[in-house]
Each structure stands twice: as C-alpha cells, then as structure tokens.
Specification:
Structural class: alpha/beta
Largest sheet: 7 strands, mixed
Shape: globular
Strand content: 5-15%
Helix content: 25-40%
Number of strands: 13
Strand order of the largest sheet: 3-11-10-9-8-4-5
Radius of gyration: 29 Å
Distance between the termini: 47 Å
Order of helices and strands: HHHEEHHEHEHEEEHEHEEEHHHEHEH
Number of helices: 14
Length: 487
C-alpha cells in the first residue's frame, strides 16, 4: 500500500497544559473520525511525524502506543503502523458539535429527483436500453487512430485550448457523413460537438425555453430530457403516442392552448417503443412547427441500425430552419468516448456554444480527431456494416427467446430498427414483480416506470438485444421470466 502524504494534525500546542502526546492522540482520533484517515491507511513513521510536528520522537512513540492500546491504530511490525480496520464504536472524547464527514453536505442544495438516470452495471446480465456490444469494437484500429491523431495534433499545435464547438477536423468529417447518409444540408457553422446526446438536450433546454414556456414530449420518452426541460423552468406536457408515432392532432390542440416553444421527439426509432413516425405525420409536424414557431428537437440516437427496408431521412433534412438535430456517436463507436453533436441554424449554435462555455470549455481533441480518422478512412462504415449483420442475427435469436419466455405474459413487435424491443404487459402486477425481483434473480432492466413523462402513463420493459451474445441473452431472458412469475 502507498504511504500517505504528509499528515497535518491540528491543535498541537506546546504551551498547552495538556501533555503533547495526549494532544497527538486526540488529533489522530479526530482525523480518523472525520474520514481523513481511513481504516487500513498507513501512518507516518514515528520519526517522520516527530520531524513534521517538531516534537521528540519518544512523544510520537508514546502516542502511537496509546492509540494502539485503545484500538485506533494497529501495528504491522516492520511494515509500520496502520489505522485499525476494527475501530472502536465510541470515541473517548464526545464531540462538541457534529463531526463533518465526506458523505454529508453542510450547505443547502437541490436534491436529485428520485428516478434514476441509468442502469447500474452491477450485474453482468443487463438487458440495457439499447447499447452496442463494446467487446466487438476494433480496438486495434482505434489505437492506431489515436496515435495518428495525437501525432498530427502535436505537429499542428492543436493540443492547446481550441474551438469550443469541437475539433474542426471532426466537424468537417461529420458534415460529410450527415450530408451523404442522412440528407442534411450542413456547413461547419451548423455543427457543434458535445459530450454525448444528453449534453445536446441540456444545451437545447438552456437556449430554447424560458421559465413558463411549454415543451411537448411523447407520453413515453427519454425522461432525462424531460428533467432537463423542467430544470430550465419549462412545463412538460405529454402527447399521446400510438403505433404511428406522436399524435399530431393532439399536438395541434395543445399548441392552441399553450405557449409551446419546443417539441422533443425520437421519430426514427421512438424511445422506448421503437415505432417510427409515419411520413404523413412528419409533414404535419413540420407544418405545425412553422405555423406555431416552435422548435422540433429531433433526437436521432441510433440512425444507422435499421434492419428492415430503407430508413426514413431525419426531419432536419426537410425542415432545417425549424429543427435542432441531436445525434450521438456512442452507438457507432463506444459510449465511453463521449461524443455527440448538434446541428442547427448558425445563430442557435452560437447561443449553445455560449452555454457550453459555462459548462465545459471544450472536448477531447485527440478523441475527436481519432474518430474523425475512423470516419475518413472508412473504418467506422465497415464496423457498422459488420455490426448490422451481427445485430440482425441477435435480434432474431432474442425474439425467439422472448416468445419462449414471455409469449404468454407480454406483447411485443419485431422492431424495424434500433437495438431494443419494447414489451407491453396487460397485467401491471407482472411489471411490479419484475421491478421487485429482478436483482434477486441476477438480471437487470430499467424500471418499468422510468420511461413515463407523467406518472399515469403506460409502463413497459425496454430490453436491449445487442450488447449480449446469444447465450448471455438467453440466460438473461430466463432469469427475467423467473422474476416475472416469482410471487
């Protein structure tokens, strides 16, 4: 174990009537109780502590012997003295005031909402919300791209503070990719790199809405987005959702009743239900956005993974002046690289960059330029093509597993795209049992209530099929079945 940094003990006063060794005893106990010294930490040697405090070494030896006798310290022979791993339950000296600890705050703050943002990774069998299998990414290619990017950035002196909109090289690569693959008419000034799509949602909430404004969302949606809009002071109103996407007739009615500044939706593969917004509804949505002057916030989080037919182009490709388009590279590369982007009119991007500067000066230049190299060399396109076949096979096996384990309990459709399946349950008692029992049976899913924009909304289970191999997924579904029937 590493030796500690120099320990500073407070209240050591050579002029005090209290013997020096006893002052040291009380000071060490105080540091242990407040958490600065933890069980198992090595103490300085008696010589080191004596020199730092300016006292005789025998004084430290006497203090250590007393602390060992009381159970606060323990001797490890020639290795030294450590803080005991079996501390006394009560101190010898009652504190005059509550002791500060690392786990408590002594000031006012706004507590986090009760709904968790993400799944815990404590279980190896996580039916996540639609993540890729990071084990399949070509790490050798990424390592070479990092090396090349760092060397090129060093030669061009691009490792210093740079453009808060992100690496110009990555933005240029994304402009080309989004033009050719998604039909977006973009220039460099239309784009800003973010640390994932959630940062894009947060920036949109900061720029597009003010306290008292209204944001419309699908009844089932990405709830961290709803929380971001509420944190900006907006009222979030859910809009009915069916097999054809968001109900544009209800949306129109709500626009007539409220000051709607934005509509947030996931039209390509709706989150969490996976349905696609039909073309006629897309056109109606664009017409309403122009008439009522609201922004369409289009979260296109996994565009490439579409398995049936030709994917629809984003709404932003037809109506860029009314759309804030949020994308992510997490599904294409690795979530841990933390790369997303926003495409919007230039002045909107400028406003977002101002907010971004208050939150995060800039991104990670080596990572951004390494990913740009993967795009330019075609490595990312090859990886996605290979993964689409892998995930197509896994989707088929997953559907078979669902039919075996949940055919009598739930309804579900084979998704045309995306990396997850939405399970609908007529009997909510089954959902209660899944939420309650899953950890005991060694499997994890998001809680069935975690997708509801309002508490009275429909519940369900979103189960990702891509991040587990076929054997792992089969095991997870059997465990989930046990959780569903375990009363």
């Amino acid at each position: 174990m590493l030796r500690p940094w120099k320990i500073q003990l407070e209240s050591i006063d050579s002029k005090s009537d209290t013997p020096l060794y006893m002052q040291i005893v009380h000071a060490v106990i105080h540091e242990i109780r407040r958490g600065r010294l933890s069980p198992g930490d090595f103490m300085p040697s008696s010589r080191e502590l004596a020199e730092s405090l300016g006292v005789n070494r025998k004084t430290i030896v006497l203090a250590y012997e007393d602390l060992i006798a009381q159970g606060w310290l323990a001797s490890r022979g020639t290795r030294g003295t450590i803080v005991s791993t079996d501390l006394p339950e009560q101190s010898l000296e009652a504190p005059k005031a509550p002791e500060p600890t690392a786990g408590q705050a002594g000031f006012h703050f706004r507590a986090a909402p009760g709904v968790p943002f993400a799944l815990s990774a404590s279980s190896p069998l996580v039916l996540d919300e639609g993540s890729p299998d990071c084990r399949l990414f070509p790490y050798d290619v990424l390592i070479r791209a990092y090396r090349s990017a760092i060397l090129r950035a060093k030669r061009a002196n691009r490792l210093k503070y740079g453009d808060p909109r992100g690496s110009a090289i990555l933005r240029e690569s994304l402009v080309g990719m989004l033009k050719s693959q998604r039909g977006l008419a973009l220039r460099d000034e239309n784009l800003c790199i973010t640390r994932g799509s959630q940062m894009g949602v947060f920036l949109a909430s900061r720029v597009l809405v003010e306290p008292g404004d209204t944001v419309l969302m699908e009844t089932l949606s990405y709830t961290p987005a709803a929380q971001a809009f509420r944190a900006a002071g907006a009222t979030v109103i859910p809009v009915r959702l069916d097999r054809d996407g968001i109900d544009v007739a209800e949306l129109e009615r709500l626009c007539g009743e409220h000051r709607v500044r934005a509509v947030f939706l996931t039209p390509h593969h709706q989150f969490p239900t996976t349905v696609a917004l039909r073309p006629e509804r897309r056109l109606r949505l664009i017409e309403l956005a122009r008439r009522f002057s609201f922004a369409i916030i289009e979260d296109d989080y996994d565009h490439e993974y579409h398995f049936e037919g030709q994917p629809l182009l984003p709404i932003a490709s037809y109506c860029p002046e009314q759309t804030v388009y949020i994308g992510s590279l997490s599904k294409l590369t690795l979530p841990s690289l933390r790369l997303g982007y926003i495409a919007a009119p230039p002045k909107v991007i400028d406003a977002m960059v101002h907010e971004l500067m208050l939150l995060d000066r800039q991104g990670n230049t080596p990572t951004e330029e390494a990913v740009a190299e993967l795009i330019e060399l075609g490595e990312l396109r090859r990886h996605v093509r290979k993964m689409k076949q892998t995930y197509t096979d896994r989707r088929a096996a997953f559907i078979d597993g669902l039919q075996r384990n949940f055919g009598d309990l739930a309804e579900f459709d084979v998704p045309d795209g995306g990396l997850a399946v939405w399970l609908r349950f007529a009997d909510t008692a089954i959902l209660d049992r899944i939420d309650r029992n899953q950890a005991r049976h060694g499997v994890r899913t998001a809680q069935s209530t975690s997708f509801a924009v309002s508490p009275a909304t429909e519940r369900g289970i979103r189960a990702g099929f891509a991040s587990l191999n076929e054997a792992e997924a089969a095991d997870a579904l059997m465990r989930l079945r046990k959780a569903a029937v375990d009363k």
